Amino acid sequence: MRRFLAPLFMSLSLAAPALAHEDGHHDGVMVEHPWARTTGTMTRAGAVYMTVKNGSHEMVTLTGVATERAKAAEIHQSSEEGGVMKMRMLESLPIAPGETIEFAPGGYHVMLIGLTEPLKEGDVFPVTLTFDKAGNVPVIVTVTGMDGMKGGHGEHGDHHKH
Length: 162
Fold this sequence. Notes:
This protein is mostly beta strands. The chain contains 1 helix and 11 strands.
């Protein structure tokens, strides 16, 4: 039995990097290019960014986010008011049919509160987004350097900047 398990575990460990940065989709909702920036060793919070597309013919609402990488995960929106950046928690985020929402620095993001450990470049971790009509959409988040995801489309870059 051990002869068969060792090769299985080896192949799974080799496949893990290929699963990194895994997009998710369910019932017309597509989540693409999930990523997070590295955090400092003393930082207790982080943020996840991605692109969410509603390819269905009806309104869907993002109602929650979960990950074991933090004590809490919340939908947040940053915006500038009177020259000052403010951040607020959203209970939910409606997405119209055919609409694409960019979760990017300075805008919508998933706030990770009470990180279980710092986010280090190259780390990958699962996040589950919950939608009212599409259910749970699991994705794999890739942690990048402080510059975030920049570069060409192959690196999922410029569309994350605002």
